[in-house]
Amino acid sequence: MKRYVVIFEDSAQVNVRDSFDWGCRACGKREARQWARQLRSSVFEQLAVVPKAFPLAPENDEFSEEEIRQMIVGRYRVLFTIKGREVHVLHVRGAYVGTREPQHDE
Questions:
Q1: Cα distance between residue 86 and residue 4, in whole Å
Q2: 3-state SS of the chain: helix, strand, coil percent to 5?
Q3: pTM (2 decimals)?
Q4: What pLDDT is attached to residue 61?
């Protein structure tokens, strides 16, 4: 079985870093590190093999250029797209973050 290349976009890296920083304050650096390792490991292991097995995200209806899919890891939603043999992780959102609202120019 051919594997996909999983790429964490800058926006997803910022999301993980923000959650890590919050985790350091709330639970301590050790637990925050463990959470970040487990999250990345789950994402890489699953998305490298079966990214199309995950459902479309609610945000998919707002974007017509590409499919937006989601993977649930604990209380986090991992939003990603598939381009050829690459999986692009766009965002990692905690349960407290709602769906992305479309931006309208005013």
A1: 5
A2: 40, 25, 30
A3: 0.83
A4: 85
